[in-house]
Amino acid sequence: MTARHPMLTWLLAASALLLSDICRAEAPLEATQTLDKLHSYAASADWDNYFALYTEDAHFIGTDAKENWDMAEFSAYARPTKGWTYTLDSRQLAQHGDVIVFDEHLSSKSYGKCRGTGTLVLTPEGWKILQYHLSFPIPNAMAKRITAQISAANQEE
Question: Is the pLDDT confidence value at 21 over 70?
Answer without folding.
Answer: no
